[in-house]
Amino acid sequence: MKVFGILLTIVLLFSTAAAADKRKVFVIGDSISIFYGPALKKYIGSRFLYDRKRDNGEALQDLDKPVGANGGDSRMVVEYLRKLQADKSFAADILLVNCGLHDIKTDPATGKKQIEPEEYLANLKTILKISKKMKLRLVWISSTPVDDERHNRQKVGFFRYNRDAAAYNEIARGLFEKAGVPIVDLYAFSREFPADAYADHIHYKKEYAELQAAFIAGFLLNSKF
After folding, report:
1. DSSP structural state of residue 106
2. Which of 69, 160, 77, 155 is closest to 114 using CA atoms?
């Protein structure tokens, strides 16, 4: 884990640098982003204003049921973006988006995904289209890995499989690379964590969530936005 400590130190050094004009970063993501959010806000604070889809704590009451600050699946992200588009008071420069882990929720009886691949791609195309209309700089965050055995023995009412997380990430990559949308590969980064990095069946312990924040912050602080 020494390399992660070095990464965090570098990000903190960058985050203390002076900045003339702060651009606003707005985050829409699942519960993984709720956990790395506070550290991300701190790490990018010298150059960016941070905001996200928010609530009064409802999302944390049941992390498997996307409400409030939890962006949920791609269909929910599209619906929320349409609300922001209609909100004349909303303003941001950079839009950090992730969705996928809720999309790949699998019915144990039928094997059906919550959002099938074809709809997932269609929803991502809509996210891209709306972000362009809103003149937001879209940055895509890939979904984090799934430990099949750990997740599916918890009996949370649905299964998840890492093969699906990887496949949906590739769907996103195929679209966004072609469109010139930057991708922060949080999947590859988090895949290097040890098995005990998980706090439960899918979420990460605080120290690892902070490393994810540092990874994303490093990308933002080194990008020409």
Report:
1. B
2. 160
Q: Which domain holds residue 99?
A: 2-221
The CA-based angle 132-99-29, given to 5 degrees, is 85
Rounded CA separation 141/163 (Å): 18
CA nearest neighbour of 81 among 39, 47, 131 = 131
What crossing angle do the helices spanning 117-133 and 74-86 adopt, rounded to 10°? 20
Q: Which residue bears the tokens 């944390």?
A: 60
Q: Is the pLDDT of residue 15 over 70?
A: no
Which parts of the chain are beta strand (E)? 23-28, 48-52, 94-97, 137-141, 183-184
Which sign does the torsion angle of CA 82, 157, 203, 106 carry? negative
Is the Cβ–Cβ distance between 172 and 185 less than 8 Å? no
Of the chain, the percentage scoring pLDDT greater than 70 comes to 91
Q: Has this prediction a pTM greater than 0.85? A: yes
- Number of domains present in the structure of the chain: 1
Model pLDDT for residues 152-162, shown as the tens digit of each residue: 998 889 999 99
Report residue 116: phi and psi, to 5°: -70, 160
Looking at the predicted structure, is the pLDDT value of residue 20 above 90?
Answer: no
Q: Is 20 exposed, middle or buried (0-12, 13-18, 19+ CB in 10 A)?
A: exposed
φ/ψ of residue 139, rounded to 5: -125, 125
Q: What is the CATH number of the domain that holds 69?
A: 3.40.50.1110
What does the pLDDT average to over 198-209?
A: 97
